[in-house]
Amino acid sequence: METRWVHFPLHPETPMEGVSLRELFKGRNFDVNGFRKQMQDRMAKANLPYGDRSMTYNSRLAQELGKWADTQPGGEAIHDALYRAYFVDNLNIADEETLVAIAESAGLTATAARQVLVERSFKKAVDEDWRRSAYHGIEGVPTFFGQDLFVMGCQPYEILERFVKHLQKLQAESS
């Protein structure tokens, strides 16, 4: 089963300098501390790191960088590096210098990463991902999609495991 990253515009209106989670959810009946605790518990159960994130940042440039990285040998490592930067280290993934450093830490060439960001050479590819996400009614991240079925949002491992097994069964039945 092939895995491919498709990008989604979660809070595309977020300014490049970011916004606090409290400000993002201001006026909505949303408990930021409860949400953070729920995410930390879920990530701990999956043995994934999760920091004390207080900000959200515009992820558009990170998505373009990720799309480019997927075309490079070993480039898939950038997705884990971006996860860590954003969800663990609370880094501004809208900042070009931060993104170049993340690319370099993932084994990619800093010069090439900077060129991708400056020239916006993967803008159209991410625009297409956004259109595809809208077409399928995707409204949250992460979303796992296959055979016209999807699981949306941060889900327990057991849910994802059931989803993958179901997709495998459907694939076997259609072969």
SSE map:
Elements: E1 19-20, H1 21-24, H2 32-45, E2 55-56, H3 60-69, H4 77-88, H5 96-105, H6 110-119, H7 123-135, E3 143-146, E4 149-152, H8 157-174
Antiparallel strand pairs: 1-2, 3-4
Helix pairs in contact: 4-5, 5-6
Concise account of the structure shown:
The chain is mostly helical and 175 residues long.
Description:
The structure is a single chain. This protein is mainly alpha-helical and 175 residues long. It has 2 domains: 120 residues, 3-Layer(aba) Sandwich (Glutaredoxin); 34 residues, no CATH class. It contains 8 helices and 4 strands, in the order βααβαααααββα. The strands form 2 sheets. The protein has a two-stranded antiparallel ribbon. A two-stranded antiparallel ribbon has the order 3-4. Helix 5 runs antiparallel to helix 6. The chain is globular, with a radius of gyration of 17 Å. The two termini are 13 Å apart. The mean pLDDT is 90.
